[in-house]
Recover the amino acids of this structure.
């Protein structure tokens, strides 16, 4: 199909040329795994984001089809497709933000850690290319197990001396999105007005909602706390089981990924007070990585907030979360070091 690259090269149209080079102001964003269940709606939503001037869609399959389709949307971002490993570096050069939803999803009965064997290698390869082509980009990691893939990314960057802990962020926004929804449901609130901090990591007991810190302030019964904690921690499994073998959350994840990516871009632009939960290199606990509220700015993570006062229930949850997280972090680090 005709595309801006062909018009630029074959017809030499000055105006096309200008736009195809991403000359308009705005950010350059790459999605790696753009033809997948998350990748496609994520690409569509990023094409609708006015902060994006150039959108690179990379995958090992079907990237040209998704690109042709999305490029017909009459929004301002210019879209380009990249297919296969040999085009990976071209997809990454000059990018401000790289979002990674590449990798296999769970089927019923699997844990996120069961994806490690396949997804660890995928994330490692992609991060090696990022380290080479756009080491200053902000990287949003969605591929599971996030608790291990973020340490993998960090180790890859460390190996070649470009690790910047401010720029590598594991996306835990879906946990917050779910927590806001479920709390709003039982309290009869508008979910847009609810803010639940979710800390720790992104798998089972490592997903720790801090219900004592919900805004607006809510008072829950112990039964409600047990119900909410269990539903938030197992929200992913709820979707995996409902999809019955056809994958895991894709649409709510694309929504959450865009909410987070948009926050990163607004922060890069210089907007003040952009605060969200993310899984990052951290000193909030004794673990080297932890999810908590962070303030985003022009350089990525500018400030990591402490957990704040926890009640006894949350303190017990924190101990369980840290125990599992420690193993997942070590597994990721060893994978790159071995
Ligand atoms: P999917 O199978 O539908 O799509 C994955 C895409 O990745 C495919 O298009 C595939 O071709 C591509 N891919 C595979 N290897 C690649 C490589 N080396 N380079 C580039 N692309 C490659 O899966 P999905 O439902 O989109 O889920 C993707 C990942 O996101 C899974 O690991 C899943 O567990 C994870 N996930 C994370 C969260 C979160 O909250 N962080 C939420 C949902 C899903
Ligand atoms: C989710 O939370 O929906 C994702 O991590 C996908 C999964 O495997 O549950």
């Amino acid at each position: 199909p005709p595309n801006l690259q062909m018009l630029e090269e074959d017809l030499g149209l000055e105006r096309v040329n200008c736009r195809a080079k991403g000359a308009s102001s705005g950010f350059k964003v790459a999605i790696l795994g753009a033809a997948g269940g998350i990748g496609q709606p994520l690409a569509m939503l990023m094409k609708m984001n006015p902060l994006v001037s150039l959108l690179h869609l990379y995958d090992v399959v079907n990237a040209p089809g998704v690109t042709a389709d999305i490029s017909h949307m009459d929004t301002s971002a210019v879209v380009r497709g990249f297919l296969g490993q040999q085009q990976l570096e071209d997809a990454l050069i000059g990018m401000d933000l790289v979002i990674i939803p590449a990798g296999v999803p769970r089927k019923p009965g699997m844990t996120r850690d069961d994806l490690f064997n396949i997804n660890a290698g995928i994330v490692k390869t992609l991060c090696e290319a990022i380290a080479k082509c756009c080491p200053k980009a902000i990287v949003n990691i969605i591929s599971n197990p996030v608790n291990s893939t973020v340490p993998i990314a960090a180790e890859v960057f460390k190996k070649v001396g470009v690790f910047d802990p401010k720029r590598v962020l594991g996306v835990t926004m879906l946990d917050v999105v779910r927590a806001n929804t479920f709390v709003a449901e039982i309290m009869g609130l508008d979910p847009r007005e609810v803010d639940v901090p979710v800390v720790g990591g992104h798998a089972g007991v490592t997903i720790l909602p801090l219900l004592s810190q919900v805004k607006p302030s809510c008072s829950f019964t112990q039964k409600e706390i047990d119900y909410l904690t269990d539903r938030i921690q197992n929200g992913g499994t709820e979707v995996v089981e409902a999809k019955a073998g056809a994958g895991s959350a894709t649409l709510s994840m694309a929504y959450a990924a865009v909410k987070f990516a948009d926050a990163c871009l607004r922060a890069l632009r210089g907007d003040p007070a952009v605060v969200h939960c993310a899984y990052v290199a951290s000193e909030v606990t004794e673990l080297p990585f932890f999810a908590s509220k962070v303030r985003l700015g022009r350089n990525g993570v500018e400030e990591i907030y402490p957990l704040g006062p926890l009640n006894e229930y949350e303190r017990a949850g924190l101990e369980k979360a840290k125990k599992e997280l420690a193993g997942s972090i070590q597994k990721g680090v060893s994978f790159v070091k071995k």
